[in-house]
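Deliverable D4.2, example record:
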Amino acid sequence: MERVRWTDERIDERMAAIDNTFDRVFTELHTLREEMHAGFAQLRAEMAADRAEVVAFHRQVTRIVAGQVLALIGLLGAFVAAQL
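Output generated by the structure prediction step:
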């Protein structure tokens, strides 16, 4: 089997092909990174909106429960007053 000799031109061609491949990979990574940043920004905005809705729901539930507790206390007070 004959051994292939690597000339300077052949080495330069191979290195240029490797450089092109890495350039393509780096471009794809850069594009992916930009897409991820945009996606995360959109996700953060959606999460902030969802959080605001959860906080509003929590307030509403708290008011309802507080109203029920006050009504129960009123009923107990009326029951105790009626027993006296």
